[in-house]
């Protein structure tokens, strides 16, 4: 029966080529617009750590007085002070934890003919690689001992390894970066979490850093932060050591807590820490508190999905709605014009239900054709987006899930649009049409 | 004259087609009025004047390998070397570049202890040449002399004097001239010696984007920004020369981000440009879809009413009267659609205002979009209406 209806639908579309083409085109344009913004939204709202969402937490502390506002929904700053990060590093509860800063290194190639170049960097703890499941091509993370002994070692990205060592296993080689020598202990394989959830301060969609060094090297090599540094207190900072002692917010902190019980323990430990610091004269606010946010909360808190994207998503779905209303009108016109034909089929014994089904099949065919063309339009739209936003290169790509979603969306939209016209034509009284011929 | 009543009663005989057009027009109006408004807001934002002589400026970043040494001698030499490149008018080391989204800012208040009026000010640091390099103009007071300049070898900034932008002055001292007044940065008093007409901070999307100051302090930070003002025809040659000249003097550093100011501006407003383009595309496509819809339904309604039209023609109606019938009918439907759509547009605007940073939709946008849609309706119906007018009266006598 279905294939018969399908054949009828195809014949019917061919009978009115212009109006059919208009319907397919309108549906395709609507689906193209909705599919484009939906794809971007889908990639933007992706949680790359969904499988560990309830184990990874960003840590924040209110070390400031009540007049300061970190510019977030709970007025906390996104980062910690160095003394707090250093103290939390010593806490016992978390299985794994890491303090980190965004850095940058000017790397001097061995070849004197080549100019120094910048590599993005991150000073972090050994646990970074385990917590965030960083795959290794060569070598391994530095040892736990390095996190306290501050040895000048580094883990580099595959791209930097290609650039400096031609892709060879570079473990044991040295790199001169910002006037210090670092020994390579590991090379990272492909690692591109998008959004780059662990540091969203300077944009959420960019590549991970190229050079990772131990956080314990901060006081030794005086590694400068390339990220944000916010102050709430008037302090006279004369030297790098002053920075380390200061109340400036510039260090990021993540912990891994495996169970809710462990999380509760850690929260208690932090509460105790705040109490102790207040007794020591720090943390002037009576409401000083600590906050743990899991990955999804952290992505939402940082507003990773841009406001523009939400507006575009809303408007593009309204657009699709217009296309659907448009299609209802055209379908009504088309179906009712053929009412005489339907009347004959009814007179020959087709039930209302069968007429309804037959027309829904026709509508679905339009939906599938529109969806197919719409997917092409969405691909064109995404290519256009990549031109407009260079950093959308990773974002504006359609995967198979998205493609299927777009096709289903089109089918669904067409069926919804077809319900009323198909019902109307199904109710046709055969006698009414038969007599006029 | 316009036979509104018979047209209306003819219209009411089959309601679903007109109702669908009304719904479609209402939705279309709601979307395009708001989209056009957002486009206009973005275009206004991205065309704002930064206050500097953009066409003559280029900028780049120098990152020294040695992050802790005394970098002041090198920095002064770099400025000298840049000024010797043919075509360069002025060159200055500073801490930030307008519209670059990266730099230093601090709260500045009109009274000590964070009292009085205050605003977050993006501050530019540099020697006396910076003022000429940026090419800004003064409204009052004077620019810096070489004797005003100090070197800040620490990371705490403690200037004694500053130039502030008119925008900053208006916030701090709304009722009087700020010239000669003291302002406070982290409780440190600073004398306002000059007021600049316009100078935008590095953050084009901050609310107080125009709150800016220049302080006469040179900083030997390991990262320095350089701004170079060149003769207009020398832009390309200077862009090419910068890296070689500076690295020839000292190769132990990285020179990056060499770009004309026009590119800095493009980058700063890239999202706004993209949003404006995307929404314009949405508007055009939406109008096209709506126009197709009207053509389709009007054609259908004409073919449905062939006999009635033929009968009217046979009873003496002129072709013009038939044409007019369909135009007026369409105008009635469209008016109902845009009336409903006006509420939709205002509702959508309210929703966007509550959830996002968007201002109130000015009535002008609504009126223009509304008129445009009615005109689009008339244009779309023109062809089917013309076809209706060509229906021969003889059709009335044919068949039943």
UniProtKB/TrEMBL annotation, chain A:
Main location: membrane
Residue intervals passing through the bilayer: 21-44, 311-336, 356-380, 400-423
MacB-like periplasmic core domain sequence ranges: 20-271
Record's bilayer topology term: Multi-pass membrane protein
Database matches in Pfam families: FtsX, MacB_PCD
Highest taxon in the source lineage: Bacteria
InterPro entries the record matches: ABC3_permease_C, MacB_PCD, Macrolide_Exporter_MacB
Compartment(s): Cell membrane
Keywords associated with the record: Cell membrane, Membrane, Transmembrane, Transmembrane helix
Domain ABC3 transporter permease C-terminal, residue spans: 314-430
Name of the protein: ABC transporter permease
Annotated source species: Ferrimonas pelagia
UniProtKB/TrEMBL annotation, chain B:
InterPro entries in alphabetical order: ABC3_permease_C (IPR003838), MacB_PCD (IPR025857), Macrolide_Exporter_MacB (IPR050250)
Membrane topology term: Multi-pass membrane protein
A Pfam family hit: FtsX
Domain ABC3 transporter permease C-terminal positions: 281-393
TM helices/strands, residue ranges: 274-300, 321-343, 363-386
Entry keyword set: Cell membrane, Membrane, Transmembrane, Transmembrane helix
Domain MacB-like periplasmic core per the UniProt entry, residue ranges: 72-242
Compartments where found: Cell membrane
PANTHER family: ABC TRANSPORTER PERMEASE YTRF, MEMBRANE COMPONENT OF TRANSPORTER-RELATED
Membership in a protein family: Belongs to the ABC-4 integral membrane protein family.
Entry protein name: FtsX-like permease family protein
Protein source organism: Ferrimonas pelagia
High-level lineage: Bacteria, Pseudomonadati, Pseudomonadota, Gammaproteobacteria, Alteromonadales
């Amino acid at each position: 029966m279905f294939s018969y209806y399908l054949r009828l639908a195809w014949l019917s579309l061919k009978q009115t080529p212009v109006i059919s083409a208009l319907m397919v085109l309108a549906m395709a344009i609507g689906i193209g617009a909705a599919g484009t913004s939906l794809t971007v939204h889908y990639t933007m709202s992706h949680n790359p750590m969904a499988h560990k969402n309830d184990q990874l937490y960003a840590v924040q502390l209110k070390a400031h007085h009540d007049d300061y506002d970190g510019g977030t929904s709970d007025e906390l700053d996104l980062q910690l002070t160095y003394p707090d990060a250093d103290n939390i590093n010593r806490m016992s509860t978390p299985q794994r934890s890491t303090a980190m800063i965004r850095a940058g290194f000017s790397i001097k190639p061995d070849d004197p003919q080549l100019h120094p170049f910048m590599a993005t960097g991150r000073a972090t703890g050994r646990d970074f690689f385990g917590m965030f499941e960083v795959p290794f091509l060569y070598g391994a993370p530095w040892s736990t001992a390095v996190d306290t002994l501050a040895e000048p070692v580094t883990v580099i990205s595959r791209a930097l390894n290609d650039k400096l060592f031609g892709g060879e296993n570079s473990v044991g080689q040295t790199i001169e970066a910002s006037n210090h020598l670092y020994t390579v202990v590991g090379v990272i394989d492909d690692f591109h979490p998008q959004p780059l959830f662990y540091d969203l301060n300077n944009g959420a969609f960019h590549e991970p850093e190229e050079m990772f060094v131990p956080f314990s090297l901060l006081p030794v090599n005086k590694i400068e932060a390339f990220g944000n540094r916010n102050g709430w207190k008037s302090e006279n900072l004369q030297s790098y050591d002053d920075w380390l002692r200061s109340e400036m917010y510039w260090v990021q902190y993540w912990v891994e807590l495996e169970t809710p019980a462990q999380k509760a323990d850690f929260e208690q430990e932090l509460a105790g820490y705040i109490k102790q610091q207040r007794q020591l004269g720090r943390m002037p606010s009576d409401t000083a508190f600590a906050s743990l946010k899991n990955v999804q909360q952290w992505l939402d808190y940082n507003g990773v999905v841009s406001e523009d994207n939400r507006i575009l998503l809303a408007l593009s779905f309204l657009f699709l709605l217009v296309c659907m209303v448009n299609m209802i009108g055209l379908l009504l016109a088309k179906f009712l014009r053929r009412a005489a034909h339907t009347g004959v089929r009814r007179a020959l014994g087709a039930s209302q239900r069968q007429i309804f089904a037959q027309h829904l099949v026709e509508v679905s065919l339009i939906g599938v054709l529109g969806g197919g063309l719409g997917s092409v339009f969405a691909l064109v739209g995404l290519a256009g987006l990549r031109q407009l936003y260079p950093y959308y290169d990773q974002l504006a790509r359609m995967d198979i899930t998205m493609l299927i979603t777009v096709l289903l969306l089109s089918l669904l939209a067409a069926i919804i649009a077809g319900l009323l016209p198909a019902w109307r034509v199904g109710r046709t009284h055969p006698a009414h049409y038969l007599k006029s011929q | 004259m316009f036979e509104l009543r018979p047209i209306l009663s003819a219209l009411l005989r089959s309601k679903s087609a007109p109702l669908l057009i009304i719904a479609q027009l209402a939705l279309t109006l709601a979307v395009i009025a708001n989209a056009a408004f957002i486009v206009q807001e973005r275009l206004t934002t991205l065309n704002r004047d930064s206050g500097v002589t953009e066409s003559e400026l280029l900028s780049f970043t120098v990152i020294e390998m040695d992050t802790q040494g005394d970098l002041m001698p090198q920095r002064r030499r770099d400025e000298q070397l840049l000024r010797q490149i043919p075509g360069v008018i002025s060159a200055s080391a500073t801490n930030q570049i307008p519209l670059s989204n990266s730099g230093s800012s601090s709260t500045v208040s009109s009274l000590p202890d964070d009292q009085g009026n205050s605003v977050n000010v993006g501050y530019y640091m540099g020697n006396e040449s910076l003022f000429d390099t940026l090419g800004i103009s003064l409204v009052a007071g004077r620019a810096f002399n070489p004797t005003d300049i100090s070197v800040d070898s620490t990371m705490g900034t403690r200037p004694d004097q500053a130039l502030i932008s008119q925008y900053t002055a208006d916030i701090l001292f709304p009722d009087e001239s700020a010239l000669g007044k003291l302002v406070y940065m982290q409780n440190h008093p600073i004398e306002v010696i000059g007021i600049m007409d316009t100078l935008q901070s590095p953050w084009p999307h901050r609310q107080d984007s125009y709150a800016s100051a220049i302080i006469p302090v040179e900083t030997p930070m390991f990262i320095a920004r350089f701004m170079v003002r060149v003769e207009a025809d020398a832009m390309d040659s200077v862009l090419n020369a910068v890296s070689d000249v500076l690295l020839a003097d000292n190769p132990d550093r990285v020179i990056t981000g060499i770009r004309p100011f026009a590119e800095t501006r493009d980058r700063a407003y890239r999202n706004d440009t993209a949003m404006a383009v995307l929404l314009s595309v949405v508007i055009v496509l939406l109008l096209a879809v709506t126009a197709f819809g009207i053509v389709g339904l009007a054609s259908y309604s004409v073919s449905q009413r062939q006999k009635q039209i033929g009968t009217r023609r046979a009873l003496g109606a002129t072709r013009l009267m038939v044409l007019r019938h369909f135009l007026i009918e369409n105008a009635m439907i469209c008016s109902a659609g845009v009336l409903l759509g006006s509420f939709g547009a205002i509702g959508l605007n309210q929703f966007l205002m509550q959830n996002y940073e968007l201002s109130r939709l000015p009535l002008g946008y609504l009126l223009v979009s509304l008129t445009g849609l009615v005109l689009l309706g008339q244009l779309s119906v023109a062809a089917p209406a013309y076809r209706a007018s060509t229906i021969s009266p003889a059709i009335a006598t044919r068949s039943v």
